[in-house]
Amino acid sequence: MEQYAARRNAMRAAVVSDQADVDRVLSRTAAHIPTSALPRGLSPETAELVERALRQHSGTLSAAECADRVGISRVSARRYLEHFSDTGRAEVTLKYGVAGRPERRYAWVA
User: Fold this and answer.
1) Which one of 1, 18, 30, 96 is CB 3.0 to 4.6 Å from 24, fit for a cystine?
2) Distance CA 66, CA 104 (A)
3) Alpha-helical segments (H) within 32-96
4) Nearest-5° angle of CA 38, CA 34, CA 9?
């Protein structure tokens, strides 16, 4: 009930100047991941799924493993994971194999 009251008060006090303001007020994830904080092309809903996958996994995940857990492409998972890394919410480590590029592994920091 307290969350509802806080949301209702926020809606009354909100100054709406564009669609981002409407989305922020009406979105359930707005308090968690602001739309304006995500780069163009990334959605708050998918960001929340990727974050949840990282938080629930003990240890590190590769982009491919995260993609399998969330149900998105590896490339999309990597974009979200890199965003979290760039903003300091995820930590990246490199896992070196015998040949080729090292695998990037991600873990939730916050």
Assistant:
1) 30
2) 12
3) 44-56, 63-70, 74-86
4) 165
- pTM comes to 0.67
**Euclidean distance between CA atoms 9 and 6, whole angstroms:** 5
Beta bridge mates, 104: 94
- As to burial, measured by CB atoms within 10 angstroms (0-12 exposed, 13-18 middle, 19+ buried), residue 23 is middle
pLDDT tens by residue, 48-71: 999 999 999 999 999 999 999 999
- C-alpha distances out from residue 46 to 20, 71, 73, Å: 17, 10, 11
